[in-house]
TrEMBL record:
SUPFAM superfamilies: CBS-domain pair, Winged helix' DNA-binding domain. The keyword Transcription regulation applies. Keywords: CBS domain, Transcription, Transcription regulation. InterPro entries: CBS_dom, CBS_dom_sf, DeoR_HTH, Diverse_CBS-Domain, HTH_11, WH-like_DNA-bd_sf, WH_DNA-bd_sf. Residues 4-74 form the HTH deoR-type domain. Residues 82-140, 147-214 form the CBS domain. This is Helix-turn-helix transcriptional regulator. CDD domains: CBS_pair_CcpN. The keyword Transcription applies.
């Protein structure tokens, strides 16, 4: 096994953080000339730690991606990169219709929005289970009666790291998080705009895809 030099390891780190990046930019980051690192770049490309495309530059190779730890991967990946579309219902939706939607869409949590499309709350399978057990009148109740209201909902931003989002999921013991952006100024008193949802399944899929490609 070829042991990489400290400079070669530093080049890999620069490429990971700034890809795509040119050889000149890498050399500048190291305060060296381009000819000085030419052999290092050639070796790293040959060993698949970095890769290169003409007129594009250098980017992480297969081995570099495979060496990324799960924590590093989740820190570098943004929520917006792996979020999915939310399953939305309205506050006036009956619990019966909400439960039907829950199972037809095969999700664990429904996002509830108001008439303006702002996040009003969320409702999970547990919420529906609690209200329906031993309560025959629950079916016709509006979902607003059982949802967790927006002010108490844990959310994430599209620009948050997936690692931070994962920490929230673990701390608050939830399986998914609404992805929101704050309403524009001048709309005080309204909830945030719902733009997606992030699930534990999406995070696990992200990690498995990188492992498979490595």
């Amino acid at each position: 096994m070829i042991e990489l030099t400290s400079r070669q390891l530093e080049i890999i780190d620069i490429v990971k953080k700034r890809a795509p990046i040119t050889g000149e930019q890498i050399a500048e980051s190291l305060n060296l000339s381009r000819p000085t690192i030419r052999s290092d770049l050639s070796i790293l490309v040959m060993l698949e730690y970095i890769d290169a495309k003409p007129k594009v530059g250098y980017f992480p190779g297969k081995k570099a991606v495979a060496r990324l730890s799960g924590g590093y991967l989740l820190k570098e990946t943004k929520v917006k990169d792996i979020q999915s579309n939310p399953i939305i219902i309205r506050e006036a939706t009956t619990i019966q219709d909400a439960v039907v939607t829950l199972f037809l869409q095969d999700v664990g949590t429904l996002m509830i929005c108001d008439a303006d499309g702002k996040l009003a709350g969320v409702a999970s399978r547990k919420d529906f289970l609690k209200v329906t057990l031993g309560n025959p009148a629950a079916a016709s109740m509006p979902v607003s009666m059982v949802m967790t209201r927006q002010s108490k909902v844990v959310t994430v931003s599209p620009e948050d790291s997936v690692l931070d989002a994962a920490h929230k999921m673990i701390f608050y013991e939830v399986d998914s998080l609404p992805v929101v952006v704050q309403s524009e100024k001048g709309q005080e008193g309204t909830g945030p705009d719902l733009v997606g949802r992030l699930t534990k399944a999406s995070i696990i899929k992200c990690i498995l895809e990188v492992e498979a490609n490595g």
